[in-house]
Amino acid sequence: MQFKSRNVRSLAECVVGDAAHFPYRSSKYITEFFEDCDLPFVHDGSTRWAWATDRLTELLSEPSPQPHALPPRFVHVFRILMDRSEAVDDDLDRSKALEILNIPLKKEGYEAYFDDGGTLQFRHIATKKVSEASNPHRPLAPEEVRRREQLATYLDACTEDELIEDVLLPMFRQLGFHRITAAGHSDKQLEYGKDIWMRHTLPTMHVIYFGIQAKKGKIDSSGMTKTGNANVAEIHNQVVMMLGHEIFDPELNRRVLVDHAFIVAGGEITKQARNWLGGKLDQSKRAQVLFMDREDILNLFVVTNIPLPAAAVRGQATRESNDIPF
User: Fold this and answer.
1) What is the DSSP secondary structure assignment for residue 87, as one 8-state letter?
2) Distance between CA 300 and CA 138 in Å, rounded?
């Protein structure tokens, strides 16, 4: 990845403190800063901004994990730089420093922002792709735990269509999938076993197609299921139909087969259901099936910092107002 030289210099001036609202760093403290970033860079006494420019250029030349994502070590440097403990003057929330940082970044098509947990994130402006997607299995910050609880409450009350439109579509868009198309439930004959189809472009520019079969409740293997739950035998029929039916991609003007099938549940997908489905599918189709249950949805939705559905926010506000003593 390459930035224009003048933009890298502006970012380097933020690092060494030649830009407004950033602490000034002499040679010794520049070295200490990069030590804090777990990087083996030692300032050699040369011009501070020029030396820092060369180091940032090195970091930008490292491979990125996904298209339109900044290299992880480059992202880490600026997360350390923008820590609230580094605030100077009257910029305690680092908002003024963030404005300065975003001037060169936006010229390169990126913007930096603080998420709900106060962590600096980088987003590609055109695709909305967030650099260095967070690990969904990491410990959650208190604000993230609160948002997770709000979303869990919403999943209990929403319909299947709301699960798709308000939760799954925004989540998969944020995760870098493209051409996400919901089949809808007004005409069941047009679904062919899938509620959503989408595609993902690999770094090699090859395209992989995904179909999604979404269920609001729990997916189990019982002969008789409770209201709101789905039987895995029904899912099996829909997965076979999904993998065997072509979809039309209007951008490529051709019909293609789905490469992988996502089975997504707003509730639990039991181990027995997964094993039963694996036993029914042949080996080639078994490798094409991916599972995503309630826990996966909650964690991915929260750590990728997707705005909660409006109904979930309204529901939380209503509960808080009911808790106010009179």
Assistant:
1) -
2) 11
pLDDT in tens, 38-74: 888 999 999 999 999 999 999 999 887 677 888 888 9
The whole-angstrom distance between residue 220's C-alpha and the CA centroid of its chain comes to: 28
Any idea of the CA torsion for 163, 296, 78, 33, to the nearest 10 degrees?
160
Are both 274 and 148 inside the same structural domain? yes
Quick one: 119 and 183 in the same domain?
no
Please check whether residues 147 and 177 belong to one and the same domain.
yes
Q: 13 is in which domain, residue-wise?
A: 5-124
**Cβ atoms 87, 94 nearer than 8 A:** yes
Cα→Cα distances 213→183, 249, 255, 275, Å:
10, 19, 20, 18
Q: Which two tokens stand for residue 222?
A: 């019982």
pLDDT digits (tens, 9 = 90+) for 4-17: 999 999 999 999 99
The structure tokens 């750590």 sit at: 303
What predicted TM-score, i.e. pTM, was given to this entire model? 0.61
**How many structural domains compose the chain?**
2
